[in-house]
């Protein structure tokens, strides 16, 4: 049997023809098969994602409702509280002032969770320093009387604004009389 050696040219042609095909087949991207979640699993996952958002919305709505209720209650209480007025350069209580404070004490007793700030105010006459001291005395006089009526002192703060926050900006005795007061604000 006669064996004939392949021609070199044929071998080179064969290699040059198939070598690029070999590289192309090895460089093709493999397809990634994505497994999609079953519709039920997907729905459960989406529901789980939505639930915290719904819970947050419900919590926010509850907080807003609570805030709104507190604000309404505060306004209701404040509408029942009466300012107390003082004579010029005085901080003692008149009979009329004591009756108003007794009514304010009744409001506070019927709302045991409410706390107050009593603001002491003055008219525009006098120095800033003098009016701050006088406003402090007016606020504390009202506070002390409420405490004698059974309101816990820890529920009441007193602050003086002197002549800085007038109720009436006029420059007459009528305006000044409106500004010499103890004003009640629910915290």
Key features of this structure:
single chain, 187 residues, alpha+beta, four-stranded mixed sheet, 5 helices, 4 strands, elongated
Commentary on this structure:
Strands 1-4-2-3 form a four-stranded mixed beta sheet. Helix content is 57%, strand content 11%. By secondary structure, it is an alpha+beta fold. The N and C termini lie far apart (116 Å). The relative contact order is 0.12. It contains five helices and four strands.
Summed up, the helix count is 5
Low-pLDDT segments, ≥5 res: none
What profile does the largest beta sheet have? 4 strands, mixed
Strands of the widest sheet, in order across it, are: 1-4-2-3
Query: How large a portion of the residues is in β-strands, by DSSP E?
Result: 5-15%
Please tell me how large the radius of gyration is: 42 Å
The outline comes out as: elongated
Overall strand count? 4
- Span of the ends, CA to CA: 116 Å
Q: How do the strands and helices of this protein lay out in sequence?
A:
Elements: H1 8-27, H2 39-80, E1 84-85, H3 95-110, E2 116-121, H4 128-148, E3 156-162, H5 173-179, E4 181-186
At a glance:
Helix content is 57%, strand content 11%. By secondary structure, the chain is α+β, with helices and mostly antiparallel strands.
